[in-house]
Amino acid sequence: MTAAAPLRSANTTRRKVVNVVMLTLTGLCTLVAAGTLVFILGYLFIHGGSSLTLDFFTKLPTPVGEAGGGMANAILGSAKLLLIAMLVGVPLGFMGGVYLSEFGGSAFSFFVRYTTDLLNGVPSIVIGIFAYTVIVLPQKHFSTLAGGLALGVMMIPIAIRSSEEFLRAVPISLREGSMALGASKARSILTVVIPAAKHGILTGIMLNLARVAGETAPLLFTSFGNRYWSPGWDQPTAALPVMIFNYAISPYEDWHRQAWSAGFVLLALVLTVNIVARIIISKRTSPR
Amino acid sequence: MTTQTILGVALATVIGTGLASAQLINGAGATFPYPIYSKWFDSYHKQFPNLQFNYQSIGSGGGVKQITEGTVDFGASDNPMSDKLLAAYKAKRQNSVLHFPSVLGAVVIAYNLPNVPQQLNLSGELLAAIFLGRVWKWNDPEMVKMNPGVKLPDATIVVIHRSDGSGTTFILSDYLSKVSKEWEAKVGRASSVKWPTGLGGKGSEGVTGQVKQIPNSLGYTELIFAVQTRTPFAKMRNASGALIQADLKSVTEAAASSEGLPDDFRASITNAPGKGAYPISSFTWLLIPDRIQDPAKRNAVKSFLKWMLTDGQDMTEALNFSRLPKAVIAKELRLIEKIQ
Amino acid sequence: MTTPVAHSATNPRRPSGRARTFWTRLKTGDEVAFLITLACAASVLLVTGLLVFELYQNSALPRHKFGWSFLTTDVWDPVAEEFGALPFIYGTLVTSALALVIGIPLGVGAAIFLAELAPARISAGLTFLIELLAAVPSVIYGLLGIFILVPALRSAEPTLRAVLGWMPIFQGPFYGVSLLSAGVVLSVMILPFIISISREVILAVPNDQREAALALGATRWETTWDIVLPYAKNGITGSIFLALARALGETMAVTMVIGNDPKIVGSLFAPGYTIAAVIANEFTEATGDMYSGALIELGLVLFGLTIIINAVARILVSGGRLKGAP
């Protein structure tokens, strides 16, 4: 018995050491992960924010090699693209989510959910190819419409899933109460269920928009690019992420600075939307 | 939120349609002449504010492809379209495409050697050997022989080439095919070749960007990109044996000492025989369909071409592009009438 | 006397139950709602079906010419019209694998800390921060990659070579842009996915499992490693597959730091090329139907890969949440 005791305590010490070491390592991992984000934010803020001028928001790009100019057309272009994306992706996605949540349960719904996940997993560059073959080629020109539709297609799966999730979260008692008062199913959905889920659905739309706002690949062969303002919806347009890409790989210092500024603006917008959306959600789901 | 959305839509539509009064003409293609095209289109727009020529530099391959698909109104390429490509165009679009030389430019060999202050010299054979991977160190004996007195580092040459379909690649590979039988046999001349070695950059801008970022690298790009970014580039030994700096004079002489251009303007002037000719010079072409349906677009394109061949030529030298020879300009002005 | 009006619940003008005909339902809007929402849900099927059809149709030329050898040829020669996907499949798999090798230990480690050790408020706060990493657009990762990561790796090259140079995958010339840089950027991009899902799955492990282990004398680490993780392993593996699917499709960040060279070299220091990157670089200029068809076929290959990986991930994650028992 006594012979075993020293062995046990040596083993215990080893186990205690391993315990502390491994747990500290996990803390370090977390530090690295969180630290990376802080670093990214900080660097973009310092590097991009400091070179941000009013010109960036108001001027058009200057000829190649000449310093100055801005990305006003790209900012408007991105806004127009997101508008089309929203007009396409949100109604289809939201209504689809309503279907899955309120009328679902059949094999068809399962099939729809499976395909939604499938579409969600398609790499954005492949969506770009799709939009090019289906819209740009037949129309014979690059356009804001094609770019917006590509982004809209990317929005649909997430819109469906998040709408369904938030609609499902509405307690069934609300639906039953409404029906008991004589309202039809459609009326119940419209006036009771959807309003009850509206915060979640709106934040879902915001997050979705923020995600596609940064997408570059599908725009390369749809909205293409434009050094000027893009009139209407059927001409090529500049977009913020594409400008960042083109300027970043160029050899001009001035363009690099503008790429940093654009990156900062884009990131600030995307992160602000994300943070606001999450705050809204957490407020709604906190216990009353 | 709904009111805001409606307002947003209204605003965007107003802005969108309000600017529809400007005639937008879309083009895409070569990165080689991008600086001068961008300057031209900007100046032309200042003179005629209702005309906007939107040019996207996606590479000569892209210019040829998009004009063939009909998704842009004009293309641009430093690699004249081959008979096969012309036939493919005709099959797809039913009409023909015309080549309009716009400027003369030079492909220079830019490099990044932080500790070498002198300008390097290269010959065609040596350049071919570098791009073939045979000469892969900066202080290779052949490099040292070519550059006496220069302290070349004992480092690997990082070759940078184009990752996209490029007329500049065509110009370089055309030149290398002329000066090196080994290159002609192994790689050949084309917009997209199977590079024996090196990294890929997108566009001449991308290649210049990579050369500036990576120490001990070497790549090929248009003269103006090297000058604008203050990247050092080498003197080339030409067919007469002289070491020539790429500039307005040497490029003009390359065009002058080459045989005359054929009627369709497709020709190569690399490795020109002139005494002071820069050996990697080239024309670059605008690809214009000979049938443009929209009368507004047709007139805009024709008037721009006339302007390019007259006033526009005065702006080329500030950006280190050489003017077109007078005889060529005269022939082109006559060709403009062929655009229906 | 006034005309008798029925006040009862069963107003004859408003029949109920089976007596409600299609038209009545239509008038009250139920049928309309059903049909409209059904159509919208079906639009997903339409779009996806059209997508697959277009990819398949437009890649017909190279598929007929090369068949399955497309996947095993390593020649990419647009001039001779010889196309093979192998260099790009290689680059895609290698960079994704490297991303996982870096991301899994970091991600699972952070998830353990956040789920097991950190106090609830700090855990929620840090997770929130880390999940924001997922919202950063790819092109911004590329921007940071070009100007910060690649030069940093270039200066770190001597150290890397000293420490890791004995392995063949860390030999050969290094220019900064390489498979290594792409793998590192991808690892940062997939980190939030691994952390977020793994943390959720670990939190879902019932507390009595932990308490039982601790009661038997296990240390915190032993409890986590031997009891909690195996319980959560399905979910964690699922998160890894999800992260992998994400890494496979990444385009912009990769093309900005990988070097764009379609060669298969057995070293991480060498430049490479991925499927997504070559499509982005060459699609707008692919002259000829064979060339553009080959790029579309590459898109089809990528699509297939991501479907398979996503499917596996989904099975694992939902399985991990439902059962969990090893």
Q: Care to describe what's here?
A:
Chain A is mostly helical and 288 residues long. Chain A is built from eleven helices and no strands. Chain A has helices at residues 4-50, 54-58, 72-103, 107-121, 124-139, 144-168, 172-180, 185-213, 217-220, 240-248, 253-285. In chain A, helix 3 packs antiparallel against helix 8, helix 6 (144-168) crosses helix 8 and helix 8 (185-213) packs antiparallel against helix 11. The longest helix of chain A is centred in the N-terminal third of the chain and has 47 residues, at 4-50. By secondary structure, chain B is an alpha/beta fold. In chain B, 41% of the residues lie in helices and 19% in strands. Chain B contains 13 helices and eleven strands. Chain B has helices at 2-18, 34-47, 60-69, 83-93, 124-132, 141-146, 167-179, 181-186, 203-213, 223-228, 248-257, 295-309, 326-336, and strands at 23-29, 51-57, 74-77, 97-111, 121-123, 158-162, 199-201, 217-222, 235-237, 243-244, 281-289. In chain B, strands 2-1-3-11-4-8-6-7 form an eight-stranded mixed sheet. A three-stranded mixed sheet of chain B has the order 5-9-10. In chain B, a hairpin with a 5-residue loop joins strand 9 (235-237) and strand 10 (243-244). In chain B, helix 3 runs parallel beside helix 4, helix 5 crosses helix 7 and helix 12 (295-309) runs antiparallel to helix 13 (326-336). The relative contact order of chain B is 0.17. Chain C is an all-alpha fold and 326 residues long. Chain C is built from twelve helices and two strands. Chain C has a two-stranded antiparallel ribbon. In chain C, helix 2 packs across helix 12 (289-322) and helix 4 (86-117) runs parallel beside helix 7. At the A-B interface, helix 3 of A face helix 1, strand 1, helix 2, strand 2 and helix 9 of B.
